[in-house]
Every structure is written in structure tokens, then in C-alpha cells.
Write a structure and sequence with these properties.
Helix content: 10-25%
CATH topology of the largest domain: Purple Acid Phosphatase, chain A, domain 2
Strand content: 25-35%
Shape: globular
Number of helices: 8
Strand order of the largest sheet: 14-15-16-17-21-18-22
Largest sheet: 7 strands, mixed
Structural class: alpha+beta
Low-confidence stretches: 1-29
Number of strands: 25
Number of domains: 2
Length: 410
């Protein structure tokens, strides 16, 4: 019996109705996690869950505004999940989009099947649909090494309302045989990304080079089976927009891994930036940096990003770009049209290392970099903070302490 077969057997052991602790439901690999399929994060939530070894005839998510503990039959609402599987693995993914939710509200839920059983109860909160302050964490280049759960625990301790992940997540390279990496990554996420108040943190993910198998020109699911198949944030399209409240929008982009920078994606980006031109906080999340901290400035991915997207970022005044790929901590100066400006420009934060071993940086920083170090970290961003409704960006390291901080003028 192979280790992969053993793993698949373990995945079927996590169902039950006897525990109130969501950590208990994933010890055998039964994973429950959250994202969004719709742009509106105030009135929807997508619950995903995995089963293997047992067949769910009617997978559902049951939910309520009141806790129901170990009694899933008491939930007042139920949504049937759509399901798909990974060929030859026995792994089934189920996805249920909860709609018409109340903004800024807490919901309790359990996922599963009446015959097989349900997960332990979890809870989430929808995003307020006004100008309330927001807090989120962002980073990329994670892997499944021992640093990841420690950093996730520090992130959850900050009570973020959501997480942005900039690619190279479990580093599966688009290979079905690498499912054990995702099994471990989702276990880490489910255990560690529970806030002190007990909320499960939803995630929004961008695709990176280690999500794909390199066979460009095939179907997206074939190129990036786990990135597409475990989340399906926008079907098989790897660029999309999510809005958070009245003042914040995030454009998630594909830096040439499945869709090219230009063409349809660039046209779409122009339309989205036009649509949200009056939104106060306009962010972009993508993998390969336009302004790299480690790689050559004119490396192909960075150059294509600057050629195709930078004119749009400058034209519409992007607030911040969240970049990864270079495995280092980086904050640029405020930039506009290839030069430093004192106002009206964009700051680019990066560059991955949310778990992966950091790369050595040159002693001579590029002219556009304000701060950088070879350090594992993630960023925590506060939007509409305080009386002045300003934004703050803090890099948090392995010990949970602040490594870098930037406070934007209101």
C-alpha cells in the first residue's frame, strides 16, 4: 500500500457529530475552508470541503445565525453543494455558496452529509458593506515547512477578516501526485487560521508559477488542478475582482501562468479599474513582482507586468500592489510612471516568504526599494483605521513582531 493510498484512507476519517472544536474535524484530513465565488463579500460566502473514502450522496452546508453545536439538524438553513473530483485519487471536493447573507454578521455552519456525518461547527463573519475599518493579512510563497503554521498562528492572532495569498501556496507544481502537500497545507490552515474569537478566516488566492505544470495552452484545470479544483474562485479563470465593504476593492491577477498579462486579461483589468475608479482603496494581488527585490529588474515576468499593467496602475492610481515570488520582505517607495513621487502614486509590498526559505538580497538595494530584508513574514493591512481613516501596513516576522511599517497619508 502506498503512502498516497494511506493518505486517502485517512481523509475519510474526519466526519462526526461529537465534537465542537473544528480542529478535531481535520485531524484525519477532513478539510473545511472558506473563499468567495462572487465579487460581493458582504452577502455571500463559499464553503468548501473535501471527502475521500466515503461517498456523500447529498453533500450540504447547514448554517444559522445561532450556534447549534453538535446538532446539525437544528440549523435553519441548508445549501446543497456542487461536487467534483480529482481523477484517480478518490478525492471529492464540495462547494456551497451561501447567498443573501446579512453584511457584518456572524454565521455558524457545518458541512457534510446526513448519512456520512457533518464537520464540527465553525463560524465566519461577513464583511460590513459600509466604510467600517477592515483588517486583512497578505503574503505569498508558503510551502508546507515548519515555519508555515507558526506564521499562520501569528496571522490569526491579529483577528483578520480575510487573507490574500499571492501564489506558490503548497508548491504542488500542478502534479496530482503532490496532493499530500495540499493535504498538509489545508490542515495547517484549518488548525492555525482560527482567530482568538473562533472565526475561520476566508482566503482569496492568486495563481503562481508553482501552481502550474508548465504545459501552457491546455485547459486551466489540467495546468493547475489543485489551484482550480480546490477553490474555483472564478471557474477556470484566474483573474477576478472582490469588493470589501464600500471602500475597498482587490483585483486578483495572473502573471502569465495560465493567462497572459496582455490581451483579454489586460482589457478586463482596464474595465475593472474603470468600474471602480471612485473606490477609495484599490489593491492588486498577483505573484511575479513588477518591482522585484531579488531577481533582475528586466526578468521576463516583471517586464511583462510593467509593460501591460503598470500604465493602467498609474492611470487609475492603484493604492497598493501585493507581490510575491522573490522570497523576501520588500516595500517600495511611492512610485508613479517609473519614478518616486510624494503623493498620488502606488506602493508595492512583497515579496513572498510567508513560509518559504528567504533568498539572499544584494547589499545594494534597487533605487525603487524603500525597505527590504531576507526574512520570513506576512503583511497585515488596516484600512480606514482611526479618526483619520488612514491605511497602515505592517510586516510581521516569525516571532510575531513588527519588521517594517508604513502608514499612508489619509
Amino acid at each position: 500500500m502506498t503512502s498516497f493510498t494511506i493518505l486517502i484512507g485517512l481523509l475519510g476519517l474526519g466526519f462526526g457529530t461529537g465534537s465542537c472544536d473544528p480542529r478535531d474535524s481535520i485531524q484525519g484530513g477532513f478539510h473545511v475552508y472558506l473563499t468567495w465565488k462572487s465579487e460581493d463579500t458582504s452577502r455571500t460566502m463559499t464553503v468548501l470541503f473535501i471527502d475521500a473514502g466515503r461517498t456523500m450522496n447529498t453533500p450540504v452546508v447547514r448554517y444559522d445565525t445561532e450556534a447549534r453545536g453538535t446538532e446539525p439538524a437544528l440549523y435553519r438553513h441548508e445549501v446543497k453543494a456542487e461536487s467534483w473530483d480529482f481523477e484517480k485519487t478518490g478525492v471529492h471536493v464540495h462547494s456551497a455558496e451561501l447567498k443573501d447573507l446579512t453584511p457584518g454578521a456572524t454565521y455558524f455552519f457545518a458541512a457534510g452529509d446526513a448519512d456520512v456525518g457533518f464537520s464540527a461547527e465553525r463560524k465566519f463573519r461577513t464583511i460590513p458593506n459600509d466604510s467600517s475599518p477592515l483588517r486583512f493579512v497578505v503574503g505569498g510563497d508558503m510551502d508546507v515547512n515548519e515555519s508555515v503554521p507558526q506564521l499562520l498562528q501569528h496571522a490569526a492572532a491579529l483577528e483578520p477578516q480575510f487573507a490574500l495569498i499571492g501564489g506558490d501556496i503548497a508548491r504542488d507544481n500542478g502534479k496530482i501526485s503532490n496532493f499530500p502537500k495540499w493535504d498538509m497545507w489545508l490542515k495547517y490552515w484549518g488548525e492555525k487560521m482560527l482567530t482568538p474569537q473562533g472565526f475561520t478566516v476566508p482566503m482569496v488566492l492568486a495563481v503562481g508559477n508553482h501552481e502550474v505544470d508548465g504545459l501552457f495552452g491546455t485547459r486551466a484545470f489540467a495546468q493547475a488542478p489543485f489551484f482550480i479544483g480546490l477553490f474555483k474562485q472564478n471557474g477556470e479563470k484566474t483573474y477576478f475582482t472582490r469588493t470589501f465593504g464600500a471602500d475597498t476593492v482587490v483585483h486578483v491577477l495572473d502573471t502569465g501562468h495560465i493567462f497572459s498579462h496582455g490581451g483579454k486579461q489586460r482589457d478586463w483589468l482596464f474595465g475593472q479599474l474603470t468600474k471602480h475608479v471612485s473606490t477609495k482603496n484599490r489593491f492588486a494581488l498577483y505573484h511575479i513582482p513588477l518591482y522585484p527585490s531579488h531577481r533582475d529588474f528586466n526578468s521576463m515576468g516583471s517586464r511583462k507586468g510593467r509593460d501591460q499593467w503598470l500604465p493602467l496602475f498609474d492611470l487609475f492610481g492603484l493604492t497598493a500592489g501585493f507581490e510575491s515570488h522573490d522570497h523576501a520582505l520588500k516595500r517600495t517607495k511611492m512610485l508613479q510612471q517609473g519614478r518616486e513621487v510624494s503623493a498620488g502614486g502606488t506602493v508595492y509590498f512583497g515579496d513572498g516568504a510567508w513560509g518559504i526559505h528567504p533568498r539572499v538580497l544584494s547589499a545594494a538595494r534597487p533605487w525603487y526599494v524603500a525597505s527590504s530584508s531576507a526574512t520570513r513574514h506576512f503583511w497585515v493591512v488596516d484600512v480606514n483605521e482611526g479618526a483619520q481613516s488612514r491605511n497602515s501596513y505592517r510586516a510581521i516576522g516569525m516571532d510575531g513582531k513588527v519588521l517594517d511599517e508604513y502608514i499612508a497619508a489619509p
